[in-house]
Amino acid sequence: MRARPTRSSVPVRAGALLAIAVAVAGAAGCGGGRPAAPATPRPRGETLFVQRCGACHRLAAAGTEGVAARNLDERRLSAALVLRTLAVPPKNMPADLLSAADAQAVAAYVAANAGR
Prior knowledge:
The structure is a single chain. The chain is mostly helical. The protein has a domain at about 45-115: Cytochrome c-like domain (Cytochrome Bc1 Complex, Chain D, domain 2). Helix content is about 45%, strand content about 5%. It contains four helices and two strands, in the order ααββαα. It has helices spanning about 10-30, 45-50, 80-85, 100-115, and strands at about 60, 65. The chain has a two-stranded antiparallel ribbon with strand order 1-2. A hairpin with a 4-residue loop joins strand 1 (about 60) and strand 2 (about 65). It starts with 8 loop residues before the first helix and ends with a helix.
C-alpha cells in the first residue's frame, strides 16, 4: 500500500515538475520543432546602398532615413542618371564613393526602387 502524500510535499512536487517542464521547453527552443528560416540575403546593390548612401539618402525600400541629401522616395530615377551622379557627384557628395562595378549595382537598385 502506498503512503498518501502529505499536503506539504504536493507543492514541492508540483514546483519540481514545473521546473522540469520549463527546462525541457527551453532546451527544445519552443519553436514547434521547426528550424528558423534563414534570412534572405540582401541584393548586392541594396547592401552597398545601405552601407555607402543610406546615411544621407532616404529610401524606404532599403530602410534608410538619411536627411542630408535627396529623398529618393520622392522621384523616380534612371540607372543612367544615378551613374552620372556617382561619376560627377554634387559638392556635398563624396567623390569615388563606389567602384565602377559597385556603382552599377547601386544604380540598378536605386532605379528599381526610387520613387515607388
